[in-house]
Fold this sequence. Notes:
This protein is α/β, with parallel strands linked by helices. It folds into 2 domains: about 1-170, NAD(P)-binding Rossmann-like Domain (Rossmann fold, 3-Layer(aba) Sandwich), CATH 3.40.50.720; about 175-275, 6-phosphogluconate dehydrogenase C-terminal like domain (6-phosphogluconate dehydrogenase C-terminal fold), CATH 1.10.3660.10. Helix content is about 50%, strand content about 15%. The protein has helices at about 10-20, 35-45, 65-75, 100-110, 150-160, 170-195, 205-215, 220-230, 230-255, 255-275; strands spanning about 1-5, 25-30, 50, 60-65, 85-90, 110-115, 140, 165-170. Strands 3-2-1-4-5-6-7-8 form an 8-stranded mixed beta sheet, sandwiched between helices.
Amino acid sequence: MNIVISGIGIIGGSFAKAIKKYTDHYVIGINRSRQPLEDALKCGAIDEIGSRESLQKADLMILGTFPQAAVEFVERNAELIPKSCIVMDTSGIKSEICPKLTALSEQYGFTFVGCHPMAGKEKNGFAASDADLFSGASCILVPCGADERSVEKIAALAETLGFGKIVYASAEEHDRMIAFTSQLPHVIACSYVMSPVCPKHKGFSAGSYRDVSRVAHINEKLWAELFLENKEPLLDEIQILIDNLTAVKNAVDKGNKEELEELLAKSRKVKEELGE
């Protein structure tokens, strides 16, 4: 296939590197700034630096940009996308953008399949991309009404690139679960390191600090967009967290050891029942 990747950051760049490492597909890179494209071409992650006209030969287009930027890119270029092309996003939010991209696909004749690779790093940009970033990770596919053949084609590519599990979900189910598994941990990490004690942690911290604070090294522009576009599910999860924190706080405040042990045991049992 001729694969056009729009956005050569950590995700788009990792797709490019993985495709070149594990397949014989031809990769064309498009990016707002030139340097990542030059770097990608130099290291063999892409075969060609593309232009707007390059979209006309795309069999598959991977959108590696922020959610709204992905929609805007397709809106600007929809008339150039072949009807035979499958367009795939990689966004961490679906309900906000899938209806728009699906409508564009119906209007212009191409196929849209939603995708969310459950992989990443604290760092961003092409320099952080990795051909094996997706190794063993889950790939969430949101078909958005696409035909079965197209969805299976994306699933097969994901498996070839090293994804360990393909998960199918609706846009609503995806966003509800991601609010808990991805967005809330970023909220927790950012809130945690804003403690005035945090700058003094060295010498007093070990694995617990690293585990909780890791994702506070955040791309604030991207995650602010993701939080706001998934507002209601995220607010629900934040409120549940506040309720649970309040229960622990109150037990500590009252000096109620029995109540505190009960709360801690409840969380331990949850993890044990999940086999984690």
